[in-house]
Design goal:
The chain has 114 residues and is mainly beta. It has a single domain (3-112), classed as 2-Layer Sandwich (Alpha-Beta Plaits). The chain contains 3 helices and 6 strands. It has helices spanning 3-7, 26-29, 78-85, and strands at 10-16, 38-43, 54-58, 68-71, 90-100, 103-112. The chain has a 6-stranded antiparallel sheet, covered by helices on one side. Strand 5 (90-100) and strand 6 (103-112) form a beta hairpin. The longest helix is centred in the last third of the chain and has 8 residues, at 78-85. This is HIRAN domain-containing protein.
Length: 114
């Protein structure tokens, strides 16, 4: 194994972003989403729907505010939620996007960084 491989983030989870149909104005933000885009994960500990809720957001830039895309899927999010609560450096990146009628299909990789 070379040094670049050792420092690469570990892919913890590959999944779809849940709830994109419930995010307002996502259609206007979709053109700004790109493959490989870094994403931020935020633990939503007070969710009344999912004990392990984790929000998926774009990173804010000087010219573009953060956009809330949806959630990690229920039933696949507990490990990530626990790692976020433990202070681990967990991020994500966009690996696929497409429209399925009115549904924005976003596939991401969740990453454990050094």
């Amino acid at each position: 194994m070379n040094t670049a491989d050792a420092s690469a983030p570990l892919v913890l989870l590959e999944c779809l972003v849940a709830g994109t149909t419930h995010r307002p104005n996502l259609k206007q933000h979709e053109p700004g989403l790109y493959l490989g885009q870094p994403l931020r994960l935020i633990r939503e500990a007070d969710s009344k729907y999912d004990d392990w809720a984790v929000q998926v957001h774009t990173e804010a830039t000087d010219s573009v505010p953060s956009v809330w895309l949806g959630y990690l899927p229920e039933g696949r999010n507990e490990t990530v939620a626990r790692l976020l609560e433990a202070g681990k450096n967990i991020t994500a990146r966009l690996v696929h996007k497409s429209w399925e009628e009115d549904w924005l299909y976003l596939e991401i990789e969740v990453l454990l960084n050094d």
